[in-house]
Q: What sequence folds into this?
């Protein structure tokens, strides 16, 4: 009977050593991984300050430029002014049109004057008198026709005069009724519409006049003065560039493995290279879309290359003007070593 070949003592020790090293490596990995999860997450980004391009909504000639580059301005401060005389003239013209439209509407609502109604009434009386005389003449000429004292032509003329006088009476009655009732409702409605149109034109002219003054939308710093007094500018042509003081944003990126350690609303600390001050902030936005994503993602290693853009809003109480556009900063999420407990 053949005895099976048993591993030598040296081989067994090699196997034991390999197993021990594997267990030790696994233990070290888990310890380090747990340690990394407890350490604060450190991200890197840049300050992203919002800028506003200020322009007039109306074209014209620049009459005044109040501030220069580097000047600090407050919300509502007048920055520039256009020559407003053409807009004042336009406003005066539309206001005059309103007065005309208002007068026409008042006239239509009040109807005709009493003197005009009296004239219409007297015209009716005159037409009635003429109709009575025409009827008498027709009757007289008809009676004379039988005795031969009048001709048929004369009778026909008297009849026509009678009918014409009767039509005149009806016309005078209609004129008196119209004068008594006043103007039609449709005419009054049209006059009201014309008045509303002129009032809208006044409102538009008033807005245009107000647009000749350019004001700061919020607190900020002038970073560019594009025009000078005397320049002709078109509407929406940039006059000033303004850097807003608040809010101050930080643009940063987080890798895919660390994405689960942050969430909108997470409090962070922000440091710059220029000072030791710690700025408090809050994560306000995390992009739902990965950037620099490879065309095909098949392995775990490739998936860890994904990064997501996030935006951090600096606490307004900490905004001191030291954070400037594009400045590199370091962001820490979680417990921060070296910061007093009162600031955590």
A:
């Amino acid at each position: 009977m053949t005895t099976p070949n048993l591993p030598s003592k040296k081989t067994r020790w090699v196997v034991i050593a390999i197993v021990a090293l594997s267990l030790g490596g696994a233990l070290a990995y888990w310890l380090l991984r747990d340690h990394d999860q407890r350490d604060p997450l450190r991200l890197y980004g840049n300050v992203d300050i919002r800028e506003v391009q200020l322009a007039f909504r109306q074209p014209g000639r620049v009459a005044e430029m109040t501030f220069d580059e580097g000047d600090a301005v407050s919300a509502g401060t007048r920055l520039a002014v256009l020559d407003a005389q053409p807009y004042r003239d336009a406003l005066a013209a539309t206001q005059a049109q309103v007065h005309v439209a208002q007068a026409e509407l008042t006239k239509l609502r009040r109807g005709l004057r009493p003197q005009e109604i009296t004239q219409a009434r007297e015209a009716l009386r005159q037409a009635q008198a003429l109709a009575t005389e025409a009827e008498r003449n027709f009757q007289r000429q008809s009676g004379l026709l039988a005795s031969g004292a009048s001709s048929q032509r004369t009778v026909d003329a008297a009849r026509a005069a009678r009918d014409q006088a009767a039509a005149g009476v009806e016309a005078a009655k209609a004129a008196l009724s119209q004068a008594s009732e006043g103007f039609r409702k449709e005419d009054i409605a049209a006059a009201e519409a014309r008045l509303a149109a002129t009032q809208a034109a006044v409102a538009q002219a008033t807005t245009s006049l107000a647009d000749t003054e350019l004001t700061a939308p919020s607190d900020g710093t002038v970073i560019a003065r594009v025009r000078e007094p005397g320049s002709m500018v078109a509407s929406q042509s940039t006059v000033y560039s303004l850097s807003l003081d608040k809010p101050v944003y930080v643009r940063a990126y987080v890798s895919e493995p660390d994405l689960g350690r942050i969430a909108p609303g997470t409090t962070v600390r922000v440091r710059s290279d220029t000072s030791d001050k710690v700025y408090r902030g809050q994560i306000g936005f995390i992009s739902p879309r990965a950037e620099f994503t490879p065309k095909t993602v098949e392995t775990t290693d490739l998936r860890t290359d994904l990064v997501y853009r996030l935006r951090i809003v600096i606490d307004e109480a900490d905004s001191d003007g030291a954070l400037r556009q594009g400045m590199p900063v370091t962001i820490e999420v979680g417990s921060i070593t070296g910061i007093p407990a009162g600031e955590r």
Notes: The radius of gyration is 47 Å.
